[in-house]
Amino acid sequence: MTAPQGYFYAAQDTDNFINADTTEPEERAFYTWGYGELLQLLTQGKLTDLQQEFTVTVSGNFEGHNVLQRGNYKQLSVILEATLSKLFSALYGSTAEKLTTFPPASNNKEETKLNTKLATIPRLLKIGLSVEQIAEALELDIELVRNTIEKLSRE
User: Most C-beta atoms within 10 A of its C-beta, which of 4, 24, 48, 154?
Assistant: First the structure.
């Protein structure tokens, strides 16, 4: 699908493999925020700003969590863009500016499972796991984990 201006619309599904041994993807592994999680990451003022632009409630809008949906399409303020960057960084272990690529979409379950594992590496590093622990937990070759980390650090 293309927009009237000529650019392409794109979307990322929220189905993700949460654990290495999961056989079916789970909804809300990514892209959703619990209200308590937002309170821990943001000041009350920034959370209020976020609520003015996005649907954010205590009870959430999807299975008790919040999918950030905009109510309008006006330009975001610099402060709100910084707030979203902070949330992105907390979720992926990097800023939106640093992460320029995502694993390609695929209908192949094994490829999707591998891409999901690779996408979780920054988060696992952030919580203090070693390269060896990540490889073991995700059942990946240690060199693949090292190469993925190296690639992310260059971006």
Answer: 48
